[in-house]
Structure formats: structure tokens, C-alpha cells
Amino acid sequence: TPAGTPAAASSLPRPPAKPAVFIPVNRSPEMQKERLKLPILSEEQVIMEAVAEHPIVIVCGETGSGKTTQVPQFLYEAGYSSDDSIIGVTEPRRVAAVAMSQRVAKEMNLSQRVVSYQIRYEGNVTEETRIKFMTDGVLLKEIQKDFLLLKYKVVIIDEAHERSVYTDILVGLLSRIVSLRAKKLLPLKLIIMSATLRVEDFTQNQRLFPEPPPVIKVESRQFPVTVHFNKRTPLEDYSGECFRKVCKIHRMLPAGGILVFLTGQAEVHALCRRLRRAFPHVGRRPPAQEGQEDSVEKTRKFKKSRARARKAQAATLPPVSLDNYSVLPAGGGDEDREAEMDEEEEALGSDLDLDLGDDGGDAGEQPDASHPLHVLPLYSLLAPERQAQVFQPPPKGTRLCVVATNVAETSLTIPGIKYVVDCGKVKKRHYDRVTGVSSFRITWVSQASADQRAGRAGRTEPGHCYRLYSSAVFSDFEPFPPAEITRRPVEDLVLQMKALSIDKVVNFPFPTPPSVEALLAAEELLIALGALQAPQRTERMKQLQRSRLSCPITALGRTMATFPVAPRFAKMLALSRQHGCLPYAITIVAAMTVRELFEELDRPAASDQELAVLRGKRARVAQMKRRWAGQGASLKLGDLMVLLGAVGACEYAGCSPQFCEANGLRYKAMLEIRRLRGQLTTTVNTVCPEAGLFVDPKMEPPSESQVTYLRQIVTAGLGDHLARRVQSEDLLDDKWRNAYKTPLLDDPVFIHPSSVLFKELPDFVVYQEIVETTKMYMKGVSAVEVSWVPVLLPAYCQFDQPLEEPPPAYCPEKGRVLCHRTSTFYRVGWPLPAVQV
Ligand code: ADP
Ligand code: MG
């Protein structure tokens, strides 16, 4: 073996830097030459000695120094993948896992059967795999199956500086796994790789690593980068400012690639289009023609899709019947959680095909064909082939210009960049602790990120970075980006950790621990959902709080933890084995997980033509929603019935982009729902083999009683999102008209106008989320019968009324529904739901 047992390591004589096993690699001479230029090559010996001597090693080095591509190769050559074991490498982003596995395979002249990747829904791992790139979520799931990770001899946590939640947890878990493996005399090596030098959270954390691991710094040949600040900070239009800056650089400055940082996919595409029109080159259509054709083409498409939509509408008239759903994809067993970052972009990604927005503004600008510019987009969900283009040299006589999101900051290094244009912003999900309201916000980056971005310009020669903000603004930036774990709710993590029998989550060695309040809120929710055992109420408050933070998991919780969805949704799935509700619950949960199934139609229109299109679509979507929601019981399931109906109808229509476009559905979201349905179905079958009948779930429309059960299941899952309509006698003033009261918010909340229950105003509802625009709006609303509340949601009730027959009432001070244990439920209302799992 390459190393002795870590416990004895220090007393043993130094092991040789290269173990006896040396696996030769047959690289091409060109590749070898290119490798030798990388700074990390001169550190190979130091790194490998440190790895041999210490169980945990930290490797730091500028982006592009060769950490990701080279360290796995060093380990391979040193025999760390002999005896059928695997070198595992985790990445926070899917795009990096795929790209890096391809690159390393190519450098080593090995097939992707040997150097492979695994991400949420796909992978090419085989029996022969020796180096496996994966997203951090994939490894976390593997730990649940095999806590000791016995098939790995080394695990590399890459991009640890990103501080993604799963990376943080992996570091904490692996610190323990490493010592367990040492005790078993099957040592596991952990290598943490990071781009910036800020590793104190890892090294100065006694609880995480009692003995600080050695840090190896890779010096890179970084050329000086001149940073130019804007005199003032543009307030709104940083995209326009980017455009102007790129034009200037391209017209006036010497050769060298340009890299632009923007915040999201839609912005990236808009700027790419604008730049391509401004600087066309051979092989591209001249811009005027492109523009014209665009609008003609779009009108034609619109007319055609309207005709198709009419046809499709006729086709959707009969209720969904036995064969209405196409076969689900095979799904595969890769039910892992995925890094958030990718999802965020996805949630925001506008459907390009539907994007009718014209670029406006530069209509008067003459295209300049004398300065060809090779413009390429780069963001995490770009197809791998298109993403690989940024590594190719640009066509002769053109200048490369890559317009990227944050992925280009550290995950991928683009060759030949001399100019960086940095808008200074980044898009991040923002959670409101109290309300649970989440939104995407564009915020300033940190100083460390801004410097990292600037550094991209000095890789091959001295470069320039243009910051579209002033130095005063820069000095107000946070020094470092905050760890993600401190900015989001943690109930899913707490559940996963409890499932790993880590009961005292407060004691877990997080690199940066989440706040105790966040942990408490998570435990409280999980207790209410029945996933954790409630502590004894008799204990004194303080003890109660302490014991709250160490509640063990329940059988229901274990089932819930196997589903790759948020705990509220997992509860719904766990409950829906009854009455044949599973396929419907799976569909509803999949559709809720993939946010924003419907296209954003409230956006401002750039032209009259677009306005007409949007209006037409809005009317059509409203009509379809009413149709999908149906009447009676089905309408009471509300927006969730709409999701069920929309997915059903779309699958019936072959899940075509045309159907989606015609009905205002996001095609990409629909594909994601389909994949998630397949994945959840597979998971259900694994958890509960008797449910085998769901392998190929063909759904008839739910019966009326099934719809009612679904409503109860949804109520049980979204219990903490219960809202009660403010009755006229409680009306304090006009702002409460048609309003709802939730336990946590003082302000009124309203049913969102896009909801099918907007006019129905049921007395009690549960909602998926609250979004704040002009008012607080509930989205994803479903009606609840009050009589269900004490039975399904006892945790949110107070049973302290006298035993006679008070009507269920609402206590605004406590923010809770006051119900009687012997409420009307047993006499009226629905038959007692069998909610045991
Ligand atoms: P680090 O992980 O330290 O940031 P990498 O190992 O990702 O560095 O990159 C090392 C070098 O390999 C960089 O110069 C980068 O440009 C190059 N590289 C990475 N992937 C590719 C690729 N697919 N094609 C060409 N060059 C690549
Ligand atoms: Mg890297």
C-alpha cells in the first residue's frame, strides 16, 4: 500500500515519495509538453510525499495551475487506484465534473471507461473506472450507502473554496471517515483542493481537524494584471456597459482574448447576440438579415404554433386516460442530490427559443465586419460540446470573446485571456429566515471573487481587468463570499445527517457551522413532519432546547431521507403509498421541485408584436389552467392539480417543445420533471419493492377520492405553510380584504393572481412558497378542510379548549389554529385518512 497506517505514520521512516507500484501512462508527446508548462508539475514530489505521510492534505493554488487535471494523474501513477480501488474527485458543479473527466482521459490517453464521471442524472462509470469525477451530491449519497467509502483509496474534494453546502458537509464527514478507516487499517487519503489561500476554516478548526493538515501552496506564474475601475458605478445597465467596454477593447487594444463576467444565462445570451451583430465574421449571417429573418421567422413560428396549439387543445379535451402518458425514462439508480448552483441557473434560465426580446438600444449601430469577434457563451448548463468550444483556439484572424457566468471564475480556465470585463455582480439565491420566502437576487461579489476574476487576465501575459464599478464600491465589498451553509435553511441537511445517525447535529464538525437558530428551525420542522422523534415536553425549557438538537430519526424520517427531494415533499411521497396515490404524488412533487413550470409572461414587451404575443399567451395559459384544475374536488387541489394536469397533458402530447410553447410551459422544466419522475419512481421501487407496479407508471386521472387523499397528503407535507382566510369580523382595515394570515407573518398574504384559487378564496389553504412583489403572494396554493388540521397537523394545533363543542377558531396572537381534539373531524369531513407509513 502507498502509505502506512496514519496512526503510526509519524514514527515510521519516511516512505518513498513514489510507492513501489508505478502505473505507467502513455501520454502523447504534445500533451506531455503542455503538461510540463503547468506550475503544479514542479510540486508533484512535494504533494505526493505529503499525501504518503498524512491522511489529510490541503493543496492550494491559483486557478489554472493544474490542480484538477494533474493531481488525479499523480495519484493514478502512484498506484492509488490499484487493487480495483478508485480515485474519487468531487466538484460542486456538474459542468466541471464532466469537462474535467474528459480532459483527464484525453491527457492520459485513456478511455472514459477508465476516467469517468457521475452527475445527478447521468454518468459513464464502468467496472474499469479508476478515476471518477462526480458532483459532491453524488458522493454524499454514496456515503449513505457505504459510510466508509471502501471502494475509494483517495477522495479529492475540489473547489473547496466555493464552500458549497455539500462540499462543507463532505469535508466534515470525511474527517471522521478518514479516522474510522485508519482504525480499520484501510487508510483513506483525503485531499482538499482550493483556489484561494483562505483555508483557515479548514486548518484552524480544532473540531474538524484536531491536527491541522499540511497545506501545499502551488506558486503559479501569474503575470501582472492592471485593474481599471470605473469612475462611477453604473446603476442599472451593466449589460450595456459590458457591451460598450468590449467594443472599445476590441477596436482599440492589441490582440488577446476577452472574458466577460455576467450573472445569468439569459444575460449571457443577450450580450452574445449583441456582440455578434456588432462584429460579424465570415461564416455568420450578416446581422441585418439575421434580425429580419428573426422576426419573420418568429411570426411564422407563432402562427404555426397557434395552429398546433389549437389542435393540441382539441386533443387535451378528454381527461387523461390510460395511455396518455408516455413511458418514463429508465431513470437509473443515481438518486443523488445535486449542487445548488446549477439548479439556480436552471431555475432562472429563460427559454431561449421563447425569448422574443429584441436587443434594442443599438439599432443605429453599424455592424463592423472589419473586426471579426469570435463570441462564445459559457454557463453551467450549456451543452458539453458547446462548452468545450471555449478551449479551442478562435478562427484565424478573429479575437476570442467569452461571455460567462460565475463558472469561469474558478471552475474552468480559458486559455489566452488578456482582458477581463467584470460587472461585479453575481446571482444568488436569497432566503428569508422568518418567512421562508426565497428569491434570486443579484448582489455584489466579494473582494476575493473580484480579484479571482481579475486574475483570469494574467495567465499567459500581462493583462487588464475592467471593473464596471468604482474603487469606493469595491472597498465596501465583503472580503470573502459567505459559506453557503450560513445563508440557507438546513432542514434537508439535518435530515440527511440524522439518517447517517449523526444525531447531535450541533456537534458536527462543519467548516463553518450554521446558526443554532437555523438548526433549531430545521429540527422543529422535521419533528412536525414526523421525521424526528419529538423530545419529552416535560423537560425544562433549556433542556428541551438542547434535546431538540439531538432528536433521533424515526422510521418515517428514514424513508423520507431516501428521497432526493426536500423534506416537505419527501413526507408527501412517504404518505402516498395509500390509495394508489404514488404516481400522482410523484408528479406533483417533481413539478414543485422544478420551479416555475410556467413561462414568465408578465415581463415587459419590447414591441407591439411581442405584446400581442404575450397577451395571447396569458389568456391561453389562464384558460388551460382552469381546464387542468377542473371542478369540485379537483379544483380544491388548486395549483397542484394544475401541475398534475399540465404534466399529464404535455406527456399526452408527446412532451414536445411545440406543446410547451403553445401553452406557456417551459420545455426545459418539463424535461426535468420527466427525469425527476423517473428517478423518484426508481427510488420508490428501491425503498418499497412491493410498489413494483410503478416502474412504468401509466396514470389514469385521479379519482375524486384520490384527489381528496392527495389534498390531505399535500396538507400533511406543507403543514407549516398553512394560512387561514381573514374573516370579515377580523377585518381590521381594508388591507386585509381577501387576505390570509399565516402563523409567522404579521402582514397579510394573498393568493397570487396566477393561482386558480385566486377567486375561490377557501377558508384554509397550504401554499408552496410566498413571493414578495407588490404584496406578499402565496404561490402553489391548495385548499384545506379545517377538520383535517387537528388530525394531520397536530403539531400546529393547540388542544387547550374545553371539551364542549367550540368551533375551530383561530388565535391570531399565537398564530395557531385552535382546535378541539374531538373536533368535527370524526363526524363530518372525510373518512379518516390512513396516514401510517
Ligand atoms: P486548476 O484546477 O488548478 O484550476 P486545471 O487543472 O483546471 O487547473 O487546468 C490546468 C490547465 O489545463 C489550464 O491551463 C486549462 O486551460 C487547461 N485545460 C483544462 N481543460 C482543458 C480542455 N478541455 N482543453 C484544453 N485545455 C484545458
Ligand atoms: Mg480546478
From TrEMBL:
Q: Which GO terms describe its molecular function?
A: ATP binding; helicase activity; hydrolase activity; RNA binding
Query: Where are stretches of biased composition, namely Low complexity?
Result: 1-12
Span within the full-length protein is 212 to 1048 of 1153
UniProt record, GO biological process: maturation of SSU-rRNA from tricistronic rRNA transcript (SSU-rRNA, 5.8S rRNA, LSU-rRNA)
Q: Which UniProt keywords apply?
A: ATP-binding, Helicase, Hydrolase, Nucleotide-binding
Q: Where is the composition biased (Acidic residues)?
A: 333-362
Q: What is this protein called?
A: DEAH-box helicase 37
Q: Which domain of life is it from?
A: Eukaryota
The Helicase ATP-binding domain covers 48-215
Chain positions covered by the region annotation Disordered: 283-368
Q: Where is the composition biased (Basic residues)?
A: 300-311
Tell me which residues make up the Helicase C-terminal domain. 245-501
| GO cellular component terms, semicolon-separated | nucleolus
Keyword Nucleotide-binding, does the record have it?
yes
Residues passing through the membrane, by range: none
